[in-house]
């Protein structure tokens, strides 16, 4: 149940960012759900493989920054995979990753 809730919240964040950031384009809510799913899968697999050695090198002190950066990279990868999803630049990907991380943290508290 938590996975579905997180997926829907991340899809809502992606759609909300299309209204706030003009450099983010998503065609519809179905695309937002698929993009959120792919970002979650990429973060769980490829993102973990990238984050693990970086956290070891930094002794976990920069864990939040590493997680933020890797999530932004996964968002840019999702941009490459979907034609109905477009992010112009890396800064909007970092902003989206920051909002997703904050929302995930708040969801974990409740």
TrEMBL record:
Alphabetical UniProt keywords: Membrane, Transmembrane, Transmembrane helix
InterPro entries cross-referenced by the UniProt entry: Phage_holin_4_2
Domain of life: Bacteria
Entry keyword annotation includes GTP-binding: no
TM segment ranges: 6-25, 32-50, 56-78, 90-109
UniProt xrefs under PANTHER family: SLR0284 PROTEIN (PTHR37309)
Protein name from the UniProt record: Phage holin family protein
Source organism (scientific name): Pedobacter psychroterrae
């Amino acid at each position: 149940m938590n996975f579905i809730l997180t997926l829907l919240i991340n899809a809502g964040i992606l759609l909300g960012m299309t209204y706030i950031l003009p450099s983010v384009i998503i065609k519809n809510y179905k695309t937002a759900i698929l993009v959120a799913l792919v970002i979650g899968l990429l973060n769980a697999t490829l993102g973990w493989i990238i984050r693990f050695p970086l956290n070891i090198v930094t002794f976990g002190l920069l864990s939040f920054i590493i997680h933020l950066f890797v999530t932004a990279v996964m968002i840019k990868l999702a941009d490459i995979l979907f034609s109905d999803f477009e992010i112009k630049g890396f800064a909007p990907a970092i902003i989206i990753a920051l909002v997703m991380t904050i929302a995930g943290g708040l969801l974990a508290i409740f």
